[in-house]
Fold this protein.
Amino acid sequence: MALLNLLAAHLAYGHVPLLDGADFALEAGERVALVGRNGAGKSSLLKILAGLDGPDEGQLQVASGLRRVYVAQEPQFAPGLNVFDAVAEGVGQARALRARFEAHAEGEDLDALQTRLEALGGWTWEQRVEEALQRLHLDAAAAVDTLSGGTRKRVALAQALVATPDVLLLDEPTNHLDIDAIEWLQQLLVDWRGALVLVSHDRAFIDAVATRIVLLDRGLLSSYPGRFAQYQATRERELEAQALASARADKLLAQEEVWIRKGVEARRTRSAGRVARLQQLRAERAARREQLGQVRLALDAGLPPGRIVAELDEVSMQFGERLLIDRFSATVLRGDKIGVLGPNGCGKTTLLQIILGQRQPTRGQVRIGTRLQVAYFDQMRSALDLDATLADTISPGSEWIEIGGAGGGRKHVMSYLGDFLFPPARANAPVRTLSGGERNRLLLARLFALPANVLVLDEPTNDLDIETLELLEDLLQVYAGTVFLVSHDRRFLDNVVTSTMAWEGDESPGRWREYEGGYADWRLQRERARELALASAPTPASATAPAGTVASTAAPAAPGVPVRTKLSYKEQRELDTLPARIEALEAEQQSVAERLASAELYMKEPQRVPELQARHAAIEDELLQALERWEELASR
């Protein structure tokens, strides 16, 4: 029997049904990703599955004794709690049972209590809470009331994880988490023995976690077993078939409408069947719910800035005793697409403010380019007035808006809102009525109406549906201006950025480094650098050898096999030539990197970009091999 079984569910807000006879079943051990457009009703469906809301019609069947835990997009907590107590509410039953056991209350069946405690993991609930706090970077003593929205989300996530429910229901669990926390959560959910239903737009996360994709589209649920890539291919074929069937039905209806207007012939008795078919075609056309169109995005790159946007030379930033940035140097050129990676609170915003000349560093020099027009996308949506209407948010005091980019010019605000999938009926609705994804879409609409040659995007992917994400990727790839992208969406970073500024303060306080490529490239280069550092570090045996002795770093030679203690003539010649080869490879790598960083290459010779990228990766491999060989020979 299914753990959850939703039958013929109907749910409507206003005149548009969110659920229109939808069916859904969740089996034990399944990990289901619920996807669909913003405003399609995914969060509402999740609340119905959690038992917090009910459908207008239909039935939800729940297995006996099933434990469900739901984590909302905007979690709520009782006032006055600290973080430890808030997370510990997830193990409230285990805490209460252990308190009863330890109190030895008269009349209690201690054996039964102990059995229930062991089943709930009640003897180790403190360790589970502390581990969750550590993994999600939470301060146990902090007051929940004082935390930001993102940190409160992490508290709610920790509370759900320690509860070990049978069914876990997560609404956008990766929002506001840094990449380390996302990868930890990803692995935890992969190992999760219970059932899972999650709403997410993080494609890499869905691909790693989900075993089944369920699409909510026009009130109905469609199931797609397998990974996200399989779902996308299948869905594309379905949409093509639907479009073809609709076009054929519309053509037939148009032909029958022409026939019925002929009048006399249509009223003959022998044509009654044809009239009945026309009425059926009309009814089917009226009942058909068209798929929502695509967002139309366009960006105005504004006036071209100078070639150099910013140049940082040995920049450091310190607040009291805390060193956020330590001797960081970088050059940002026009057209660069730069990802900024690091955990929450590491100084990403401070670094961007220094690059854009909005904050002076403690030490070092910053040279700012000319004619910069900067536009910000704020993840906290602080630029939105919740009481203002959508139309006033986009164009205060005017019905018209001047926009740039492809297809730009003067547009009526209703038409412009329509480009971002807001119908005219909602143009005068207050912003507070929008879902999280719709607010992000509105913020993008406001941002793209401004001419800007530098875009600073702080978590633009939060709450956006997958189709809009892919359109935004395409737009940023061809955008002529400079982009600074702060994001924890790994696939989005890989598809957009050309270089990455990464925080590595875990190795040295305030350390930042710049890498070519996106998130996957950064991980690969970082791992190689760490392996090289470990290989060149002294072994434990040599580090602890007594004074006056030489510790052996190699395993004892097999009996009868002579140990080579001297290089051959050929090996000595190879060792002598390696430094020059390494230097030449490094110089070539620098030259290729400079070409890839040049906007001129992408405008004049775009066909050479793949070739140069492949050569840059090949040099990296050759350089690593040369360094390893040099180390091997030099150690002998």
Remarks:
- The two ends are 67 Å apart (CA to CA).
- The first strand starts at residue 4 and ends at 13.
- Residues 545-565 have pLDDT under 50 and may be disordered.
- The chain has three domains: 4-231, 308-523, 565-635.
